[in-house]
Design goal:
The chain is mainly beta and about 375 residues long. Helix content is about 10%, strand content about 35%. The chain is built from five helices and 24 strands. The strands form five sheets. Strands 13, 14, 16, 17, 18, 19, 21, 22, 23 and 24 form a ten-stranded antiparallel sheet that branches. Strands 5, 6, 8, 11 and 12 form a five-stranded antiparallel sheet that branches. β5 and β6 form a beta hairpin. The protein is globular and about 70 Å long. The N and C termini lie far apart (about 55 Å). About 0% of the residues have low confidence.
């Protein structure tokens, strides 16, 4: 039995509040478990333990009933047994010989992907590794396979400013837990940014048109200096709130998946192999070209509502490679913001408590300074 991470790696978020409380946050996107032996094996349960030294901080047991549901659901959602499609979810190129099945009874060379788990701990000892135990039956014998994976935080190698100016609500960020961004490795630490007016209103007047959003058409700026490695314009904006046209094969053939899905898009390569991705930009607004050098704060386009977007917003994330599907999303800290409000009201003084780290908060409102 071989146990591997389905994702490229594991990146925990660790924050310390002003009153000394530790916040530990980790997404395990999945485990790739392969039968490397000759005989059929039936997986009974999986144990996940967060550990520091010899101390077990938290343990979760996933029993076969839950595992069966996870295996079948994930196999169905991945649409096909083509490793290229499976790899996009995990930012990892899996072997073409991968033989993925949707049962806990796995024969020689067969694999399953399971154990999608989110950990959120407060006021805790910081784990340094996760221990995986797979308990299975082979014939009449009960057996166990064990594997450890190290937990290493990521620290930005460059300094970044916010890609918008003014007051902004930061939606669907990593602090929201197991959401539509966090569940996919390539977008794990992504945000949906929406500009607000001075009174922190998102919209004006009645109606759902793009023009009713204060954010629509706002300037999007480079968070740090770098070189444009990808810039695509031309897709028209979706008409209004909730109007998301389907992604069809004809559209993919015309625009390419890396354009039709994010809409109009700019990717900047910064120093130290860190990359900013900015998506859903307004049609006709992109002001940069591939190969062009840009300075920190330079306007690259305007906030729009293109591609797989339900309303005007800027999708932004930092990643470790130049491709939106294979690049692994990494946490970012912005140098020029102040938190002025948030849904998570347990911190009475959010700036002092969280040191302007929005990654651990639910939908905070920030102001650029």
């Amino acid at each position: 039995m071989k146990i591997q991470l389905a994702s490229k790696n594991l990146i925990p978020m660790i924050s310390k509040t002003g009153n000394g409380q530790i916040v530990f946050d980790l997404m395990l996107h999945g485990l790739l478990i392969t039968n490397t032996g000759k005989h059929e094996k039936t997986i009974k349960k999986i144990s996940l333990s967060l550990i520091k030294g010899k101390q077990e901080i938290e343990t979760r047991i996933i029993h076969d009933t839950q595992l069966k549901k996870e295996v079948k659901a994930l196999r169905k959602n991945l649409l096909s047994n083509i490793p290229e499609f499976i790899g996009i979810k995990f930012s990892k190129k899996l072997p073409k010989s991968l033989n993925l099945v949707n049962t806990l009874k796995i024969k020689n060379t067969e694999s399953i992907i399971t154990a999608h788990e989110y950990f959120h701990l407060r006021n805790t000892i910081i784990p340094t590794k996760i221990e995986i135990k797979v308990l299975f039956q082979e014939g009449n014998k009960k057996k166990e396979e064990k594997q450890y994976f190290q937990l290493r935080t990521h620290i930005c190698k460059n300094k970044y400013i916010f890609p918008l100016k003014g007051k902004i609500v930061c939606l669907a960020g990593p602090g929201c837990g197991d959401g539509h961004h966090r569940s996919v490795t390539s977008q794990e630490f992504a945000y949906d940014f929406v500009s607000l007016n001075k009174e922190c209103d998102m919209t004006m007047g009645k109606g759902n048109a793009n023009s009713k959003f204060h954010a629509f058409g706002d300037s999007v700026i480079a968070p740090a200096s770098g070189r444009i490695i990808f810039a695509k314009d031309g897709i028209k904006d979706n008409n209004k709130l909730g109007d998301v046209p389907p992604i069809t094969l004809d559209k993919i053939k015309k625009w390419g998946l890396d354009h039709v899905f994010p809409g109009n898009i700019v990717i900047i390569k910064h120093a130290n192999d860190e990359y900013s991705l900015m998506a859903h930009l307004k049609k006709g607004s992109i002001k940069v070209k591939k190969g062009q050098r840009v300075k920190k704060g330079e306007v690259v386009g305007e906030l729009g509502n293109t591609g797989n977007s339900t309303a005007p917003h800027l999708h932004y994330h930092l990643m470790d490679a130049d491709n939106m599907f294979w690049g692994r999303s990494i946490p970012i800290k912005f140098e020029n913001i102040r938190i002025i409000g948030m849904k998570d009201l347990e911190a009475s003084h959010p700036n002092e408590e969280f040191n302007n780290n929005i990654n651990v908060l639910i939908d905070p409102i920030v102001k650029t300074v």
